[in-house]
Design a protein that fits this description.
Layout: H1 2-5, H2 21-27, H3 42-47, H4 71-108, H5 134-137, H6 140-173, H7 178-209, H8 212-234, H9 244-249, H10 255-288, H11 293-305, H12 308-328
């Protein structure tokens, strides 16, 4: 009945909608009330669970300026990279030398590899004197030029043998030039083994051990070999060489013998040209290995001082000198 007692014509009471407790509680709390869609229950969402906003003052975004490296820093970085590359190269060479040394030591043992050069039959009474294997003992960057030096030695030996035949033909036509035939035999017997031992094995050892002393020995001996090849291609009469001068001098006498001698002269010329070309190639490889004359001297002194024969001779000389001095006193 109280609802009917209310006078509808009375002045309505002013109702302030902001006096609602739910509104005043939010406005006086000092915290922004936001709807959290990730709340646990629907009732919380309906009640408007709030998340306090960050009260830290916002700072404007600042872009860091890019700093260009100075030329000194670039040069220092390049120098450091170069040093690291050189160190890696030295470590690689040291590992390669150690591997070869171990292989040589294993070969020297009872189960090691036997000598394989010259390739002789097993039934032959003379056994091979050297071990030669390009793929195993020579670094890959030097294998090509080392093989070319080996082919040059074989070509030179074949040319010396053909020179003996050409001088024999020359002797049959001109009996006065028997000295050429005799000297040609001497050159074939002398130069064939000496060229192998003196300059081919020197360059083989130089590439195998990276020895500056072996390089210098090769340069000194092979330069003499180049001079000898040039003289043999010229063909001075009575020197035992079937070169151009000797071949041209017999053209009017016997054309067939002159043709044979010209072929030998061409072979001598090819040997001389290839010798000069390979000498330059070896020199360029030698410069790239970092060898020097001081290093060769150091290797020579170390090799002499550690040689057992030299040590015994020095000890004997010292003992003899001391004994003579004691006797005099």
């Amino acid at each position: 009945m109280s609802a009917f007692d209310t006078n509808p014509f009375e002045n309505p009471v002013d109702v302030n909608p902001f006096q609602d407790p739910s509104v005043t509680g939010v406005t006086h709390s000092g915290v922004d009330q936001q709807y959290n869609p990730f709340s646990g229950t629907d009732s919380d969402a309906l009640r408007g669970t709030t998340i306090p906003a960050s009260t830290a003052p916002s700072q404007p975004a600042v872009l860091q300026p890019s700093v260009e490296p100075s030329p000194q820093q670039v040069a220092a970085a390049a120098a450091q990279a170069n040093l690291l590359r050189q160190q890696e190269e030295l470590e690689r060479k040291a590992a390669e030398l150690e591997r070869r040394e171990q292989e040589l030591q294993s070969r020297a043992g009872p189960t090691g590899k036997e000598n394989n050069w010259p390739p002789l039959p097993k039934s032959f009474p003379i056994k091979p004197c050297f071990y030669q294997d390009f793929s195993e003992e020579i670094p890959q960057e030097h294998q090509r030029i080392c093989k070319m030096m080996y082919y040059l030695w074989m070509l030179y030996c074949v040319t010396l043998f053909l020179n003996v035949l050409a001088c024999l033909a020359y002797f049959t036509v001109q009996s006065d030039y028997g000295v050429d035939f005799g000297l040609s035999i001497l050159w074939f017997i002398l130069f064939t083994p000496c060229s192998f031992l003196c300059w081919y094995r020197q360059i083989y050892k130089a590439f195998k051990t990276d020895s500056s002393f072996s390089f210098f020995s090769f340069f000194f001996i092979f330069f003499a070999q180049v001079v000898i090849s040039v003289i043999q291609s010229v063909g001075i009469p009575k020197w035992g060489n079937s070169g151009w001068i000797a071949a041209i001098s017999i053209v009017r006498t016997n054309m067939s013998v002159a043709a044979v001698m010209m072929v030998v002269a061409i072979f001598f010329t090819i040997c001389a040209v290839m010798s000069i070309f390979l000498l330059k190639m070896v020199h360029s490889h030698y410069r790239r290995t970092g060898a020097s004359f001081q290093k060769a001297q150091q290797e020579f002194s170390q090799g002499v001082l550690t040689n057992r024969t030299f040590q015994n001779a020095a000890m004997n000389a010292t003992a003899s000198a001391a004994q003579n001095s004691f006797q005099r006193n």
